[in-house]
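Tip: read the tokens left to right.
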């Protein structure tokens, strides 16, 4: 059975690195746990780090957080679906919102549950996912300002989630100006201006963040240390908190070219004969006990740089190990680094064991 392992020490060091960055600048932050897919073993590790605010896009995962520690502030990080309103109010202290109708439903449910539900109003800043259009923000805010049992915790935005739009100092200044505009118009104070996710960390490190932007939601950087501007790793952070280990179940010398009539494989792909003639002959192939049901090959990378991933079917992955200096045997585990999207697939799979190292 393939397994994914969390390195506790590297996670602790990444968390401490981020916590220092944010606290030294007077910034509040929360851990985005959605990649963990509600895995209780790993959620306990996050809580043990000292995290007091956890964000997720699945209410079932926030329910687990509340069961582990009811004092943690839980944040639902997408506009709630109508059918989930009751659960949102029950298990999320805060939710991101963009629709007046939805906030009205939250208000009504909060009254029923005798709770005050906090909301963040998300503003469209160019990435074209969720968000209120800036020109409509004042009218929007006015309509929800006095809704019973609703507390407007702040405003926020997302970058790099759909269209790849990156945060810039100018965009964060614009977000802070929305705060000033609302506070002046309604004579109120907005506690949070939530400036995005891990993608904004390089701006924070350069001190290019407007002081009014005082809250961030961090997942990718915590688990992978990734600088989303350069594609590299943030200096001082680890990029391998998680590793995948898949077991070898066959090693055989086989032809490089398939034989017989070629059609689509199970993934809908067709083997291309273009250029194959130039590398005829055979190669030493290893089959691993993991497939498309659990991961996508483009989101994992073998630590052995001489391994070539050929392709995968639903439950197995085929590799060319001809040039490897490792003498692989049946039963050996092959380690892989994983990317964020690779982690989402693997952690969502019930067929990949989760461990701590």
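Filled-in amino acids:
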């Amino acid at each position: 059975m393939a397994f994914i392992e969390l390195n506790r020490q590297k996670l602790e060091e990444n968390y401490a690195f981020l916590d220092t960055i944010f606290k030294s600048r007077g910034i509040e932050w929360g851990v985005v746990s959605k990649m963990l897919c509600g895995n209780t073993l790993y959620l306990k590790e996050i809580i043990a780090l000292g995290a007091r605010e956890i964000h997720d896009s699945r209410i079932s995962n926030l329910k687990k957080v509340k069961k582990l520690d009811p004092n943690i502030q839980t944040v639902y990080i997408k506009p709630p679906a109508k059918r989930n309103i009751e659960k949102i109010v029950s298990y999320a202290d805060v939710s991101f919102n963009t629709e007046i109708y939805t906030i009205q439903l939250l208000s009504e449910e909060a009254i029923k549950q005798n709770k005050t539900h906090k909301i963040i109003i998300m503003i469209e800043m160019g990435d074209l996912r969720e968000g209120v259009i800036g020109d409509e923000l004042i009218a929007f805010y006015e309509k929800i300002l006095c809704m019973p049992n609703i507390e407007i915790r702040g405003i926020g935005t997302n970058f790099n989630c759909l269209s790849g739009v990156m945060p810039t100092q100018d965009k964060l200044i614009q977000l802070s100006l929305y705060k000033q505009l609302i506070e002046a118009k309604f004579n109120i104070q907005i506690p949070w201006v939530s400036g995005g996710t891990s993608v904004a960390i390089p701006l924070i490190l350069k001190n290019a963040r407007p002081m009014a932007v005082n809250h961030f939601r961090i997942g990718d950087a915590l688990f992978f240390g990734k600088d989303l501007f350069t594609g590299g790793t943030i200096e001082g952070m680890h990029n391998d908190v998680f590793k995948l280990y898949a077991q070898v179940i066959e090693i055989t010398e086989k032809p490089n070219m398939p034989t017989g009539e070629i059609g689509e494989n199970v993934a809908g792909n067709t083997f291309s004969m273009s250029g194959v003639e130039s590398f005829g002959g055979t190669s030493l192939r290893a089959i691993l006990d993991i497939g498309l049901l659990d991961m996508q090959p483009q989101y994992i990378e073998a630590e052995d740089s001489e391994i070539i991933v050929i392709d995968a079917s639903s439950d197995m992955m085929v590799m060319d190990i001809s040039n490897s200096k490792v003498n692989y045997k049946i039963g050996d585990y092959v380690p892989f680094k994983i990317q964020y999207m690779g982690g989402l697939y693997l952690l969502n799979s019930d067929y990949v064991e989760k461990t701590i190292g």
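The chain is about 30% helix and 25% strand. The chain has two domains: 8-224, 242-356.
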